[in-house]
Amino acid sequence: MRDLRWHQSHAVWGFLLSAAACVAAGAALAASVPVTKFITVQPWDVCVVKGPLTTCAPFNTVHQNGDPTHQNSTTNPIGFVYSYTDPTTNKTVYIDITRALLNQIGVDVIWLPMKQYPGSSGQPAFPTLNVVTGNSACGISGSPATGVQSCDFLQLSQQPCISRFPNPSPSCTIVAPLSSPASVTNMFFVTTLVPPSSQSGGQLYGFSWINNNGVAIGSNTFFPPAPLTPQIDVLAHELLHNLGLDHVSFGAGPYNPWSKANPDGGALMTTPPTTIAGECDSGYPACMTNVMTAGNLRTTPTVNCVAVSNPPLPGQTTSCTQSLALGNVSQLTTDAEQWTGLPESQQFVVTDPSQLLQPIPESKTTVSVAPNSSSMTVNVTGAAPAVIGDQEEPLLAWVFMPPPGSTLKFNSQFHIFSGGSLLQDADWPHPDQDNIGNGAYTLGTLHDVCAAATAQCLIVEFNLPGAAATDQIKFSKGFTTTVTSANLCGSSITSVFSHGYMTTSQLSCPGLTATSLTPDLTATATPQIVNQTAFNQAAANNHSCTPDSSGNCANPELTGVFDAIVSEEKQLCYFHGQPVPCP
């Protein structure tokens, strides 16, 4: 485990980053690195109940008054979603922006079902979170003040109690909203984030604990005062603080080259030799394009452009000049860009030590079609740890769906060539009863997709404990008409693993291969926990933070809260209703 530095460095530096997304024919935005970990987030909508009226904070731009009881991933999503209409199928494609940003460094996001807070009588409501300086009552003290803190957020996020689990000292009582297990990250959507009185009139969009569990998102992230626009990268930015990144290290912030005295610094090999220390402008655009650069310096992408492919796919906006695929907005540094001048990338820092992440095993699928054939031959490998040292999580179920708009239909032919001892059951075109509930083969929201009358799903289930790294099964499945490779390009391959995690990838074209480490951001069923009991058992072994080299969690009372300084955020300040320079 690497030696994490808990202080906030005052050195500033940056990098030049190549495009972090690649686009294949027939596919939407794809991660340029294997996605080997996922962070599980419990979203909480903070509400105030006054008689018959309940007012909740927004968690997207759909509802200014949040609607937590009807949350879903399309019409009422968590955060920001880019959508466009595919002219071939006439269906709307949805891409979760927070997922797309974190996929760049090999991390996916699991949103647990939204919960409302307070959830029971007697719990205090926190529609407003206040920030203070020099307040020894909640940990930050000194003269002058040594940092910024939110006593309200400490209480709401159950800190520092969560950081002391499983052996809190002194003892403390954990009540809701602590998610179980404690390594599930709590994200609170609140109405207002109030800066210290010395910074009154300014904007705070979100803040979080560095290396620790807890994120707060303010309503002006979605509905800022004009002419400011929604801050669509704030959710990812705050989650990455929990995972160990700050504003000035491993690729974020103004240019400052690496040295032994500045071990967190660095720049990519393509940095112009004329770059000046501290530069953050058009001459050094890497500063402005990094997700983790402070809000007052980084370029905020727009929903309509951030996830547009390069070149744009049919139905996508064609006039975008900034996108992930173009590599000029919301970038993160990857392991592939490490060299002597950038010894540690943001990807390495996040995925190497964090205990807030769970592993994604690698299961590979290869499909082939003989000329003039009405069947496909499929080879599926069991699940292997994608990262050395990760626990093995066998493959329990595998699901095939033809691409959107396909007219292919299955016939009765299913023939096993090898690995038949692995097979527990195979169902088509619809799931059966063991795909519902909280059992080994449950499919979560994919069950309803496959249960639709017109659906064509091939569901292959493996004998417990599942298909491991050395296991392989080869079989053929027939269709009612002749099938070609072109017919199958873009088909969905969904994998369900023993720790309750489900993810979907696409069959590439050409080649007809897929891996669970390349998630499909356009899939109907988003990555999810389909077996909560199995997930709780696996995640219970993790720390509730990103631990230091001794395996300990930092104390949020001492680190203070990140992103609570007005001068580091995009601003429009008012005094008696008139715009003024922000303090």
Task: Assign an overall shape.
Answer: globular
Class based on secondary structure composition and strand pairing: mainly beta
Counting copies of identical and different chains, the oligomeric state is single chain
N-C termini distance: 41 Å
Please provide the count of β strands: 30
Largest β sheet strand count, sense and barrel closure: 9 strands, mixed
Indicate the CATH architecture of one domain: Sandwich
Say what the CATH topology of one domain is. Immunoglobulin-like
Quick overview:
10% of the residues lie in helices and 24% in strands. It is mainly beta.
Describe this structure in words.
With 583 residues, the chain is mainly beta. It has a domain at 362-539: Immunoglobulin-like (Sandwich). Helix content is 10%, strand content 24%. The strands form 8 sheets. Strands 3, 4, 7, 8, 12, 14, 15, 16 and 28 form a 9-stranded mixed beta sheet that branches. Strand 29 and strand 30 form a beta hairpin. The relative contact order is 0.18. The model is unreliable at 1-28 (pLDDT under 50).
